Amino acid sequence: MLMAVPNPSINKKEYIITQIVHETPDVDIFYITPLDNQPLNFDPGMFVMLTYVSTEPKVEITRAFSIGSSPTTPVLDFYIHMIHGQLTSKLENSKIGDKLLVTGPYGQFRFIPSEDKKVLFIAGGTGLAPMMSMLKQINDQSTGTDVVMFYSVRYPNEIIRKDELKELESKIKLKNIITVTRESDLPWNGERGRINSEMIRKHCEDCRERTVYICGPLEFVKAMKQATQELGINNVKVKADVWG
Ligand SMILES: Cc1cc2nc3c(=O)[nH]c(=O)nc-3n(C[C@H](O)[C@H](O)[C@H](O)COP(=O)(O)OP(=O)(O)OC[C@H]3O[C@@H](n4cnc5c(N)ncnc54)[C@H](O)[C@@H]3O)c2cc1C
Predict the structure, then answer these.
(1) pTM (2 decimals)?
(2) Class assignment of domain 118-242?
(3) pLDDT, tens digit, for every residue of 119-168?
(4) Ligand 1 centroid – CA 144 distance (Å)
(5) Within 6 Å (CB) of ligand 1, which residues are found?
(6) What is the largest CA-CA distance in the chain?
(7) In CATH, what number does 9-106 get?
(8) To test the ligand 1 pocket, which listed residue (63, 87, 88) has its Cβ within 8 A of the most ligand atoms?
């Protein structure tokens, strides 16, 4: 059964930045709270349009960001790769109490726990955000969903929410395989190299029985779709969110 898509708010809703965490060398997590304290109605996987506004000089910049928080809380969080672009430069200089406007939620990349009992999540970098929202919902609502997740980062110090992921592994049916793609002096005992069909097969023998969610940059998503084809996973069961 398909659930109704939450109605996006047409008007921009006011939020304030309540916390900024320098999570990894390149990624900051922004926590924003609505002035009316009402939770946004969204399904994990969806994104919102965030608007930065300043009056002197008059600037308004809007970009899409996937929600990393659970739908059960009014506070939204976002894993933002600080690339020094137009919006991310403004966010670099923002502070607690600054206002941001939100419209949405949007997107067809949606996780419906009643439809997907067994899932395979494949995330690259900040592509973890929608998966994290899904994992939090699975935990909050005790949905019993069986999750195998592959999460790719370049270096061990780029893993977002490492402790929270560990904690979730002990609370829900989650097998999390983190892979590091580049060599460095940083200690690492986990998987190495890019995710491919061989790596997926090694850790997830029943991958064909799972609905697959992929999120990350364009090249990553292309490679992961190719891997799911090689594994003989039905296209209908593969959902992807591309940012590039
Ligand atoms: C559905 C959706 C969800 C998204 N979710 C997320 C998310 O959760 N987290 C996230 O971080 N992003 C996410 N994005 C990307 C986000 O919307 C922005 O595109 C991104 O934050 C860059 O915005 P900007 O204004 O800072 O860059 P812009 O100024 O718009 O620059 C655009 C592009 O130019 C290049 N560029 C510009 N300046 C530099 C620079 N100094 N160094 C390197 N490259 C540069 C980059 O390739 C960049 O992507 C999402 C996009 C979509 C479509």
Answers:
(1) 0.93
(2) alpha beta
(3) 999 999 999 999 999 999 999 999 999 999 999 999 999 999 999 999 99
(4) 34
(5) 47, 63-66, 78-81, 83-88, 126, 129, 243
(6) 57
(7) 2.40.30.10
(8) 63
